[in-house]
Amino acid sequence: MTRSKLVQANERIAQKSSEAFGSIEHRVVTSFDSVENAFVERYLAHENESVEEAKKRLLQEKESRRQLQQDRKNSKGHELRTGI
Fold first, then answer.
1. In the chain, how many domains are there?
2. Are residue 33 and residue 2 in the same domain, yes or no?
3. Residues 32 and 16 reside in one and the same domain
4. Residue 66 pLDDT > 90
5. Single pTM value for the model
6. Region (Disordered) spans which residues (predicted)?
7. I want to staple 54 with a disulfide (CB 3.0 to 4.6 A). Which of 36, 45, 62, 66 is the partner?
8. Which of 66, 34, 64 has its CA nearest to residue 51?
């Protein structure tokens, strides 16, 4: 069964579009990572701390703040239910 030239052309266009999107996506993500690392290194890293160590520390701090907020929220709910 022969395929029409339009179908073949559309498939080539779709393939090229997908390849172009993948290339652009890769460049954008790489550029963002580069900017993010520079920002962390310049403004957030402590003295003698690598970018990876700073990111890990920041994630741990974020998680501890989230947990503290959750604990406070649960504590207030308990106070309201028990009248304490």
1. 2
2. yes
3. yes
4. yes
5. 0.65
6. 60-84
7. 45
8. 34
Locus of tokens 């402590």: 46
* Runs of H (alpha helix) within the chain: 5-39, 51-82
C-alpha–C-alpha distance, residues 21 and 76, integer Å = 49
Buried b (16+ CB within 10 A) or exposed e, 42-78: eeebeeeeebeebbeeeeeeeeeeeeeeeeeeeeeee
Phi-psi label, residue 50: left if phi above 0, alpha if psi -120 to 50, beta otherwise: beta
Mind listing the pLDDT tens digit for each residue in 33-62?
999 999 999 999 999 999 999 999 999 999
Task: Write out the residue range of the structural domain in which residue 62 sits.
Answer: 48-84
